[in-house]
Here is the input.
Amino acid sequence: MLEIILNAFYLLLPAYAANMAPVVFRSIRFLDIPLDFGRKVWGKPIFGPHKTYRGLFFGVVSAIFIAGIQYILPFENVLLDYSNWIMIGTLMGVGAISGDAIKSFFKRRVGIRPGRPWIPFDQIDFVIGALVLISVLTLPGWEITVVAIILSFVLHILINHIAFFLGIRKERW
Here is the structure.
């Protein structure tokens, strides 16, 4: 079981980096343009002002960077050949940010404001997006997928609480 947990964690490292990047790089105003350009559907923002091209850019760059490190410092992970680390990082980064944006679309439709919790979707959106896109290169199997979702749910809550108490995040979620 420990091997499955470690493989799931290692597989998702680029997605974790992509998911954290918008928060880490929020003070940089480069590409600080909403993905939806402020447009609305049914009178509500498509994604909202917090989903930006800056987040997409830094999310993908962060995922590529981590995938490059995974290529240089390999782990006994039989799920992927990291020699194609740019493609892996791109898929995981775009998948993670897209999963978060798609969740935000539905979150706005049900009337939940940005920053307000929507459990469990806030914790697993980016994982599902990353796993869907990385399936172009590999199908991780049901064990890895289930463990990845559970692990990410727990880690997301833990890391966000730590970031809140350190003053990095404004909300616990």
Observations:
- The chain has a mean pLDDT of 91.
- The chain has one domain: 2-165.
